[in-house]
């Protein structure tokens, strides 16, 4: 594991039983020996290599479950099925982050754990982008949005690849299609606003959870990383 991610290990120490990691790609979580894990992604290993040729296929996990969070959530899994679920650096790519959090807590057992992290924009290529307000995310949730609009990707290109953005309408369309296929960052947070996002989301969804560990970008120079214990069987009727 990269030394940049050492801060995650204290969080993983809470985990036990069988879990799910979504979007592990080439950097899966280093979980305790007493855990088993299944891998879920929107693309197969072979499809990921085509989309991200810069990655070494030998570093990619074997994806057991194909699942598009935008279209299907985690509907392929029963309610309260896993002891823990891990979502590292995925939520910034999705169309409906609040819906994703709802699904994470749905598939985790009562007293199970949700591990979630997001890049802190102050330490990434998103540094020049505006923070995504919670009102925008709430609107996406209430409208049941299930795809990322071009406006999100245009914002990405303007800030991260300004030269590509300035190449004219025809080439811009090509660049948008490329970043859309790669599912580049649609939403942007720093550690403070992602922490607020989590608290606001739990309140909105009437979920009871406690944060047992959190680490901010100012400490690790990379991300917001957190572990939440699910305290309420909100999805059982």
Can you characterise this structure?
The protein has 237 residues and is an alpha/beta fold. The protein has a single domain, classed as Vaccinia Virus protein VP39 (Rossmann fold). The chain has ten helices and seven strands. It has helices at residues 9-12, 45-51, 69-72, 97-107, 134-142, 150-160, 162-165, 169-181, 191-204, 217-220, and strands at residues 17-22, 35-41, 65-66, 82-88, 108-119, 209-215, 223-230. Strand 4 (82-88), helix 4 (97-107) and strand 5 form a beta-alpha-beta unit. Helix 6 packs across helix 8 (169-181).
Strand count, sense and barrel status of the largest sheet are: 7 strands, mixed
- Can you name the CATH architecture? 3-Layer(aba) Sandwich
Number of helices: 10
Order the strands across the largest sheet as they lie in space: 3-2-1-4-5-7-6
How many domains comprise the coordinates? Answer: 1
What sort of overall outline do the alpha carbons produce when their principal axes are compared?
globular
Strand content: 15-25%
Q: List low-pLDDT spans.
A: none
Kindly name the structural category: alpha/beta
Bin the helical content: 25-40%
